[in-house]
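User: Can you help me understand a structure? I only have the sequence.
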Amino acid sequence: MNIPNLLSLSRIFLLPLFLYLLFHPNPWMKFAALVVFGLASLTDLLDGWSARKLNLESELGKFLDPFADKVLVIATLISFLLLDPLIPLWMIIIIISRDVLITALRYVAVKKGRSIRTSRFGKWKTAFQMVSIVIIIMVFIVRSTGLDLSHQFNTDSYVKLNVVYDLLMSDHKYKYIIVTPYILMLIVTIMTAWSGLRYLFTNYKVIFPLKGEKENND
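Assistant: Let's start by predicting it. Here is the structure, written out as tokens:
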């Protein structure tokens, strides 16, 4: 249990505090949640840097780092689902399914002694996802001051795109505060789905190796 792995674990340990602060109705508590999320994101940069700098890269670290990221992000997105009635369940399902699938693919690759090919698009997706989470938390901070008006609209539809469209076409004073989380989550969902498909396409040999390769591995 070295420094990089402890930094990865710290993201999981910070999660309960982050969720408590995020669900608190006080705006300052939500701001504190944003600070905690920033600290957790900082550990994501530090664990990889320290592992390379201190030559402490390990198989546990290669698993623990992305696992801690997934736990933090998935828990945050589920909290968004509970905090914003406009964010639909299907977006969270797509994002979580992609992350679980890629994690499983990485596990299979490690077991087979193979390497996983990553893409620059996947890194862009992750960066945009983290920025979107920060912006959405900032929107929640603003809403907690008394501008949370999303409950005034009918959000019973499954897709909820019609509600967002009607709001954008209206002259509602706070329409952008209301629809920003939905729009960001929609973009993240599309990027996540596309990233997952690209990941599967570029790494299909890990799951379905050619006959000759399979014999050589055996």
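Now, to help you interpret it: The two ends are 33 Å apart (CA to CA). Residues 1-61 form one domain. Let me know which part you'd like to focus on.
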